[in-house]
Amino acid sequence: MTDTGLQVHSHSFSAMASPCEIKVETDDPALAVRLGAIGEVEARRIEEKYTRYKPTGIVSRINSAQGEPVEVDAETAGLIAYAAQVHELSEGRFDITSGVLRRVWKFDGSANVPSRALVQKVLPLVGWSKVRWDNPVITLPAGMEIDLGGICKEYAVDRAAMAVRQAAPDVPAMVNFGGDLATTAPKREGRWRIAIESLDPTKDTGGVLHIAGGAIATSGDARRFLLKKGRRYSHILDPRTGYPVEHPPRSVTVAAKTCLQAGTLSTLAMLRGREAETFLKSEGVQSWVHW
């Protein structure tokens, strides 16, 4: 085989509380550096805009409005409209107002399960149906919050991949943010190799996938859970009850055209508990479920 000089160059950084990597297959190292930087800039833009931890972001402005309406830009309106659609399709299982439940649920591997009284105290602050959404204006009742963390990382993956693709349409690249990833094009030399996180702490990976293109996302509770009297409480919370979903898979990995689609489907599968595989089959997507 003729040596083409092609190599896979990696650009690594941390964002959205995740290890991030952009891989570029090219014979031009300078191009790989430039494309990696382009993807990182887009990731940091989205993190800065949608983080709930900084007062400069749009989410913080919405959450601190104290019942007053807030008009949002087109990008934010698109994300909120998408979340509203998923809420309806999931029969309320997916709800961007449920982030307030983290006030009482701390999934740190301990046995500190909150009392029913604590859960019931915060539950009235959960419920998308209580929000007024007249695109592009959102009005939250005082005390309620939205949290776009359930879709923002996957959205960032897609946006970063789009930015890389626009800068170099014919150059294969893969954007991987904490295991959620999208490719811009198939590799010229073989397929992209994807390692799935292992549920066994003694193993580095739970398996390897080889894909030509598309996107992959994984949801699971390998690192975030509570364990009390032999019962494991998943960090996947049902916003309708305020409690962890009963009997969810340990992890769900989904392949789709976009990372946002893959991430949404993997999350919805986890929210279905024992019915996760049935749900995924009904959606007709390629998936890997571990119990």
From TrEMBL:
E.C. number: 2.7.1.180
Coiled coil: none
Keyword Lipoprotein listed: no
InterPro entries registered for this protein in UniProt: ApbE, ApbE-like_sf
Class of the enzyme per the UniProt entry, highest EC level: transferase
Cofactor(s) the record lists: Mg(2+)
Keywords: FAD, Flavoprotein, Magnesium, Metal-binding, Transferase
GO MF annotation list: transferase activity
Catalytic activity annotation: L-threonyl-[protein] + FAD = FMN-L-threonyl-[protein] + AMP + H(+)
Pfam families: ApbE
Family: Belongs to the ApbE family.
Name by which UniProt lists this protein: FAD:protein FMN transferase
Organism per entry: Novosphingobium cyanobacteriorum
Species classification: Bacteria, Pseudomonadati, Pseudomonadota, Alphaproteobacteria, Sphingomonadales
